[in-house]
Structures are given as structure tokens and as C-alpha cells.
Specification:
163 residues, Beta-Lactamase, six-stranded antiparallel beta sheet, 40% helix, globular, GAF domain-containing protein
């Protein structure tokens, strides 16, 4: 996908996400809309989903809405995996080759690369956007910008609403 084409898709998606955050009836409905939009507009996103910190156990991430094949990882300790690394650092983690990363928790033999973007509320990580691709090194700085802005919009929504 060319830089110009991706930029147009990014602008369109972010505008759509701003509209969704203004009208969402719940955070879960907003999450579902976001994963559906991302996966439909960006074909290199093979699995798109959310993991949120369990409100009763802050040491565990719980699978939220997702689009893609079912995953065996419905609960992930924050000390494990690439998802755990994003919680620990509070920063985006991009892995170009999941098979070369010892942190990777295998979900599918088809997955080749992954990006995990934390969602912050009042400065604390409360969850993350997790995207897998069947393509190696699928995620660029453009994906990172799109997903970090999406995570910021979601965090802002949670700061303004209580579900």
C-alpha cells in the first residue's frame, strides 16, 4: 500500500473514530466498531482486537471485542507475551517476526508480525489494541501513528464516560 493511499485511509478512519466516540452508547460497542473498521479497511490486519486489564485483577489482560480467528489467549498475565510488554512499558511494541521474539504467545501459525498499542486513561495503561498480520514486518510507522491516535481517542472516551 502506498504512503499516499495509507494516509487517505488513516485520515478517513480517524474521522470515523472521532464520530464513533461522539456517539457510542458504550465502550464495548465503540471497541467493536473500531475493530470492524480497522479490519475492513486494512487487509494486512489479519487479527484485530482489544485486551483490557481485568478490573478485579490488574495483573491480567482479558480479551475484548475482536475480528479474526478465535484465540486461545482469552486471559494473559501482564508478565507474559508482547501484550504484557506493552503494558509494562506503556509504549507501542512492534514485532516484525513473531517467531524470532521469545515473548510471543502463539495464537496462529499464520501470524508473522504483531503490533500492540497501549490505551491510557489518566496516565495509566488500562488496555491495548492488538493487531496480528500474516505478513512479516507488516507494520510501519504509519500503522503506529494510526493506532496510537486511535488509542488516544479511546482513552479520551473512557476519561469522559463511565460504562
Amino acid at each position: 500500500m502506498s504512503h499516499t493511499h495509507f494516509s487517505m485511509i488513516r485520515s478517513s478512519l480517524l474521522e470515523r473514530f472521532r464520530e464513533l466516540t461522539a456517539s457510542a452508547v458504550s465502550f464495548q460497542a465503540l471497541q467493536q466498531s473500531v475493530v470492524e473498521e480497522l479490519s475492513s479497511k486494512l487487509p494486512h490486519y489479519s487479527w484485530t482486537g482489544f485486551y483490557m486489564l481485568d478490573p478485579n485483577d490488574s495483573g491480567t489482560l482479558v480479551l475484548g471485542p475482536f475480528v479474526g480467528d478465535p484465540t486461545p489467549h482469552v486471559r494473559i498475565p501482564v508478565t507474559q507475551g508482547i501484550c504484557g510488554a506493552a503494558v509494562a512499558t506503556g509504549e507501542t511494541v512492534i514485532v516484525d517476526d513473531v517467531n524470532a521474539d521469545p515473548r510471543y504467545l502463539s495464537c496462529s501459525i499464520k501470524t508473522k508480525s504483531e503490533i500492540v498499542v497501549p490505551i491510557h486513561v489518566h496516565g495509566k495503561v488500562i488496555g491495548e489494541i492488538d493487531i496480528d498480520s500474516h505478513d512479516p514486518a507488516a507494520f510501519t510507522g504509519e500503522d503506529q501513528v494510526l493506532l496510537e491516535e486511535t488509542a488516544r481517542l479511546l482513552g479520551d472516551y473512557l476519561e469522559q464516560h463511565s460504562d
